[in-house]
Structure prediction request, 349 residues.
Amino acid sequence: MTIIKPDDFHVHLREKDVLKIVLPYTSRIFQRAVIMPNLSVPITNLSQAYKYKQNIYSEIPKNHKFEPLMTCYLTENCNKNMIAQGFLEKIFIAAKMYLSHTTTNSNHGINNIKKIFPVLEIMQKIGMILLIHGEIYNKNIDIFDRESRFIENIMKPIRRFFPQLKVVLEHISTKESVDYVISEKKYLGATITPHHLMFNYNDMLSNKINPHLYCAPILKNKKHQSALHSAISGNCKRFFLGTDSAPHFITDKECKLGYAGIFNAPIALEMYATVFDNLNVLDKLEAFCSINGARFYNLPLNKEKISLFKFLHIPKKKFLLKTNNKNFIVPLFFNKKLKWTTKLKKNNK
Ligand code: DOR
Ligand code: ZN
Prediction:
């Protein structure tokens, strides 16, 4: 089947030698991508964003057409006028909110949500999207409840104060989030990753532990996975593609205290196609991958097309990507058959 070339509305490209080796897997398939700002020194101002964007551009292979869409990491001391200026000058497409301690490099994130109300107010006014890592961290909250508690304790209050703020709940993983997105009208969208669609925690834990399936939010049970399946099978146009491809060195994944993050960029679109096919909803794939997100972000639809072929195969079990500093990155390891593969359409017809 042939679809409009997709966009990835949530990806981690990292920097330096990691950026260099992971970027082509994203730029090969996706026309545009929303770039996460959680570098070890987070992207919190215009000059950092500008520099990071240049670094990304300098690593795009010559035959790839790709546009990085930059985001600003929100901190409690952020400058609301600078963020608004960045949006109006098209340097930032959105701003990202992490509560502290929820995931990789979230330690500069928010502890007291009220501190960022002034910036949320200005974002609501100018139509700038707030991207949310929707989890709350607290010793007393079960890891599997972090997302649903976030909706109740943080998301709903934000909504009461800012009813017209455009929000994307990122990488949703629970039935509660699906229901919440559907219950809202037009100002709330959500991205769904290929791994939350394809796997549940049994895939990570029921035999030997697979650290390459460890991510934040953590994979949930089958009931929640089915709710995500209903979301992509239904008629709500506010669910769309965001891979959350998040590479880490093998030494940070296969170790005592491993990082959350799944590097799925090399096979993300094939994973989505496989899930949509298994659910018998391939007719919804193009809207999810290439239309709904662009419409939510008020971006034009891409002109180019991409072809997917049904071709049963087992991707190479493990291929290591070597970085300059002689460490490795392992793309998502499959023990499942993939039914689909992709090819760029040369003539664009
Ligand atoms: O699994 C994840 N990894 N989830 C996130 O939210 C962040 C990401 C990362 O940056 O490693
Ligand atoms: Zn992410």
